Amino acid sequence: MKIDIESIKYFLTVGMFMKTEHSSKRRNMLIRQFQKFYLTVKFFFVRDHAASTAQLSFSTIMAIVPIASMIFAIANGFGFGQFLEKQFREMLSAQPEAATWLLKLTQSYLVHAKTGLFIGIGLMIMLYSVFSLIRTVETAFDNIWQVKDSRPLSRIVIDYTALMFLVPISIIILSGLSIYFYSFVENLNGLRFLGTIASFSLRYLVPWAILTLMFIVLYVFMPNAKVKITKTVAPAMIASIAMLCLQAVYIHGQIFLTSYNAIYGSFAALPLFMLWILASWYICLFCAELCYFNQNLEYYECLIDTEDICHNDLLILCATVLSHICQRFANDQKPQTALQIKSETHIPIRVMTDILYRLKEVNLISENFSPTSDEVTYTPTHDTNNITVGEMIARLESTPASDFTLLGFSPKKVWNHDIYNRVGSIREIYLNELKSINIKELISYSEN
Questions:
Q1: What is the number of structural domains in the chain?
Q2: Strand pairing partners for 379?
Q3: What is the pTM of this model?
């Protein structure tokens, strides 16, 4: 059977995003799941997450000793230090020398951090390493969620500091629960059926549930965006299953490194450990993309970006959106969200959000945040009777503001003087003519 490449390409880019009537709910649900998976894979490469995972892996390796030291310090304070050390050695059971080497590094870091000049320098290095890792993770997540405004400095200090202490404490609490579960399962060993279920749950289900919870927290709170918890559950479950599979491969993979111990010693496990970190971040970012499309699939019902729209058509779309907002405001109607404006103007939501951002940047509209919900609505910034098509075009075409002298170029010097003046005059006449058209007059008013 001959494969029609063009038909497959059409289905992946257009066909599966077209709404068809009389489709069954089951078919629509399957198509939606396929859309999410396809878009996740597509944008995983489009957004160049390979570079992000490499950067995250480097930051993780730089921060792993300070983070481990902090976790062990808090664990020792709560009396769980030996239990954590046992868990760590079990994870590197095939490479005991590597486990001993890493634990010695951690203990040495703690000892030197308490003495002499190193106490100040050590704390600074630890804080920088941890903050740098958290910042890199947040940047990667903000790239996925297309966040254009970064977290304020005050929130960075407060949130990152809280995270530094909450994560180790959470690990300690989970360690305490693990000890409790182990003792509980031992008491059930005499009961064949219940003992088998309890052992299976402790070995597989409990780690899976803990990992799922950790991924949910990571996906909800790490991006500087409003993420719905319900949209992160399924991707977090997938991520935790993938991580447990990767962990099994990592543990069994260390067995093949025993032959390299004679040459590399404790460093024999280092390449595999680095690959494990890299693969872990691949899983984490892939499922973060899945969270994004789980929440924002309707934004991709049309795969057109504003970069694909010519300048003239984009100005027409901007004028349409601004006219709609101004009309509703002038007629004392309730301001609308991006999705509501999209449903009335029929402009694809991805293009809509970019248009709203551009109009906000040139101070023609403002965002209004509801105190009772996550909705963001849009209203004009000044009197709608004074907003004209010419003003909108003048502002949009002058943003971002640029200075030719910074480029070492001046059209006034390069161009013919008469032609330069004529072009300026024609543009001024063009804008003045458009300034005679009020933005509200563009589209017909409707009572909605």
A1: 3
A2: 366
A3: 0.69
Same-domain status, 210 and 125: yes
Residues 68 and 200 in one domain: yes
Cα–Cα distance measured from residue 275 to residue 60, given in angstroms and rounded to the nearest whole number: 12
What whole-number distance in Å separates Cα of residue 436 and Cα of residue 366?
24
Could you list the residue range(s) of the whole structural domain that residue 23 is in? 5-35
Q: Residue 236: CB partners within 8 Å, gap ≥ 6? A: 212, 213, 215, 216, 219, 287, 291
Q: Assess whether 53 and 29 both reside in one domain.
A: no
**15 and 99 share a domain?**
no
One DSSP character per residue, 195-247 reads HHHHHHIIIIIHHHHHHHHHHHHHHHHSSSS---GGGTHHHHHHHHHHHHHHH
Which pLDDT tens digit goes with each residue over 171-186?
A: 667 666 666 666 666 6
β-bridge mates for residue 368, sequence order: 377
**296 and 161 in one domain?**
yes
| Cβ partners under 8 Å of residue 122, min gap 6 | 109, 112, 113
pLDDT digits (tens, 9 = 90+) for 398-428: 877 665 555 556 666 667 777 878 888 888 8
CB 243 within 8 A of CB 283: yes
Cβ-count burial 168-200 (b if 16+ within 10 Å, e if not): beebbebbeebeeeeeebeebeeeeeeeeebee
Residue pair 143/52 in contact (Cβ under 8 Å)? The answer is yes
Give the span between the Cα atoms of 37 and 289, in whole angstroms. 9
Q: 282, 300, 318 — which closes off a domain?
A: 300
